[in-house]
User: Fold this.
Amino acid sequence: MSFELNSQDQDTGDHTRFAEAKSMRKRTEEDARLLANRIALLKQEEAKALKKIEETRKKAKEIVDMKARNMEMQRKKEEEKKQQEESERRRQMEKKQQKDRERKMKENRSHSLKNKIQNEAQALKQMRQENLEAIEAKRNEERMMKISIKEKINKDKFEAEERRRKFAMEKKMALKAEMERKIEEENKIRREKEEEVNKMEQEELELIQRLQNTQLLQRTAYEELETAIAGQVDVDTVLGSRY
Assistant:
């Protein structure tokens, strides 16, 4: 009688937990929807600001492109000289490595012949030992087979009794396991939504920071354009801001 009362109380508690988990999951989904709307608005503002920056930088680029091309030509000449020097260094290194490989191959041939003789002698000794061990293993196997047959008979009797007992226990636990599964499923959905909300909140903060940075970059781009028009632009500074 006491067992039945405890079981009823536990079922009531399980249903309550299930209802609470489901309610928490719905609240989390609503938070995620509202946060997604705010993120969409922030992205629109960021896109507008980035478009204005791109237009400003395009004007500045037209002023400094000629200086940039001259610098690139000089850089290519220096790079070609470095490549020629590196090619000669690699050629000398490969020549030295080839000599080292030839010397190593000669040494290996001598060692291989010596090792072959030693290995063949060891293999013959090992074969004799393995034959003796195989005979002894066969005898042990026959003895263990007899013992195993007797133990299996006793084991089968014990396992039959265990199966009858486990069947009764598993039937009792099945209903409880199903309820636990439902509760865990609701909690899993809630946790996933909570994690999604956390990520979206972080994304919202990052977008706000990016929008602020973008506005600062926009002001800087206008200043660079004014400097370029005045003929005071620093090529390295403008190229750096482009990349």
